[in-house]
């Protein structure tokens, strides 16, 4: 998937370097401005912010296309992300081996949000054999609703739902990398920019886990 860099003053290699550094190492935009200046690139922190928000979603879409096959046993959980001083919910799923499947930022934590996330993850990765979740009633109801839809679409495939805190340790541990990167970012001011930035962080995490194929080429290159 090609990413359009037309109309930008800086070369795409510079833009992608800046975006990758921000989402991989957890720095503030002012720190990144200084880091870029040390490398001979004068660019202000507001421009760096625009780059991250503009390109992270396209990079994430490219990464999903290049992702290696994942297992059919999933683990799903949410973690908290503060946006405009309020908590929002980052839905995340990994397979039994800890490989990232999908992610979605939501302003609400309810059945509708859970169902939307599961539909998105299945659209990207196919229907799994089973999904382990915690004791959340909303996640259970979302999956049950999705199973009802699967039953009547003629696929003949129903997802086995397992509610287990122990099995979900894998995804809970995986949250730590995301929180480690977001902590120094000094908070998100808008929901859209938070969702875009988190998409970039998730891709950097996938690269770190060796999930991307297509001759090993990173979407940041």
From TrEMBL:
Superkingdom field: Bacteria
InterPro entries: DDE_dom, Integrase_cat-core, IS_Transposase, RNaseH-like_sf, RNaseH_sf, Transpos_IS6
Domain (Integrase catalytic) ranges: 65-221
UniProtKB keywords: DNA recombination, DNA-binding, Transposition
NCBIfam families linked to this entry: transpos_IS6
Primary role: Involved in the transposition of the insertion sequence.
Name recorded for this polypeptide: IS6 family transposase
Protein species of origin: Ruegeria haliotis
């Amino acid at each position: 998937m090609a990413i359009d860099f037309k109309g930008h003053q800086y070369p795409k290699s510079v833009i992608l370097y800046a975006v990758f550094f921000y989402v991989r190492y957890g720095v503030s935009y002012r720190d990144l401005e200084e880091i870029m200046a040390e490398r001979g690139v004068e660019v202000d922190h507001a421009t760096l912010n625009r780059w991250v928000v503009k390109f992270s979603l396209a990079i994430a879409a490219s990464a999903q296309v290049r992702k290696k096959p994942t297992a059919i046993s999933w683990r799903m959980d949410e973690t908290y992300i503060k946006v405009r001083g309020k908590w929002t919910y980052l839905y995340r799923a990994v397979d039994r081996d800890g490989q990232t499947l999908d992610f979605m930022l939501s302003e609400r934590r309810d059945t509708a949000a859970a169902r939307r996330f599961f539909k998105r993850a299945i659209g990207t990765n196919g229907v799994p054999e089973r999904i382990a979740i915690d004791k959340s009633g909303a996640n259970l109801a979302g999956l049950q609703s999705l199973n009802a839809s699967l039953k009547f679409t003629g696929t003949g495939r129903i997802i086995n739902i397992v509610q287990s805190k122990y099995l979900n340790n894998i995804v809970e541990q995986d949250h730590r990398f995301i929180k480690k990167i977001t902590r120094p970012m000094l908070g998100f001011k808008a929901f859209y920019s938070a969702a875009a930035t988190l998409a970039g962080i998730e891709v950097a995490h996938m690269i770190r886990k060796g999930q991307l194929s297509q001759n090993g080429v990173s979407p940041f290159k």
